[in-house]
Amino acid sequence: MEQYITFLGNNPVLSIIWLVLAAMLVASWFKSKFSAIRQINTQQLTLLVNRQDAQVLDMRTQKEFNQGHIAGSELIKAEKVKQKDFTGLEKYKSKPIILVCNAGMTASAVADNMHKAGYEQVFVLSGGMGAWQNAGLPLSTGK
């Protein structure tokens, strides 16, 4: 214990950085546990679609969507939904919605905005389309 106190006294900057990183880690964990937006894996996505008629919304570009997308998914423009313009999506307001982007990062911010706009069940595919493809799951091509 005495060594820790000596280290803290000799390295105040490193000690503060360590405390800030620890606080950020704890805050991130709490945010994910108590967030209304859930990150789901590929298996959970499949179950939601098959059992609860969830709608998959793909936020990638038209070109990426045409090269391969989850069957039954609908393409939405990321720029439009980032600006909180959810016109055309009202029909899914009470349905489970799963947002998919390339890696799962863009979809998280949009999911938060959708939840604030009154969408009841919004999920994000953790890892995005990369996770779907890495799992070896099928893709639909074309429109």
Notes on the structure:
The chain has 143 residues and is an alpha/beta fold. It has 2 domains: 2-33; 35-134, 3-Layer(aba) Sandwich (Oxidized Rhodanese, domain 1), CATH 3.40.250. The chain is built from 7 helices and 5 strands. It has helices at residues 2-10, 12-34, 42-52, 62-67, 78-82, 105-116, 128-134; strands at 38-40, 55-58, 74-75, 96-100, 121-125. It has a 5-stranded parallel beta sheet with strand order 1-5-4-2-3. The longest helix has 23 residues, at 12-34. The termini are far apart. The mean pLDDT is 87.
Keywords:
143 residues, 51% helix, alpha/beta, 5-stranded parallel sheet, Oxidized Rhodanese, domain 1, 5 strands
Broad shape: elongated
Distance between the termini: 64 Å
What is the radius of gyration?
20 Å
Main pleated-sheet profile: 5 strands, parallel
- Total domain units: 2
CATH class of the largest domain: Alpha Beta
Strand content: 5-15%
Helix content: 40-55%
The total of helices stands at 7
Structural class category:
alpha/beta
Question: Which spans of ≥5 residues are poorly predicted at pLDDT below 50?
Answer: none
Please, what is the average pLDDT? 87
Task: Please name the fourth-level CATH homologous superfamily of the largest domain.
Answer: Rhodanese-like domain
Q: Please identify, by name, the CATH architecture of the largest domain.
A: 3-Layer(aba) Sandwich
SSE string: HHEHEHEHEHEH
Neighbour order of strands in the largest sheet: 1-5-4-2-3
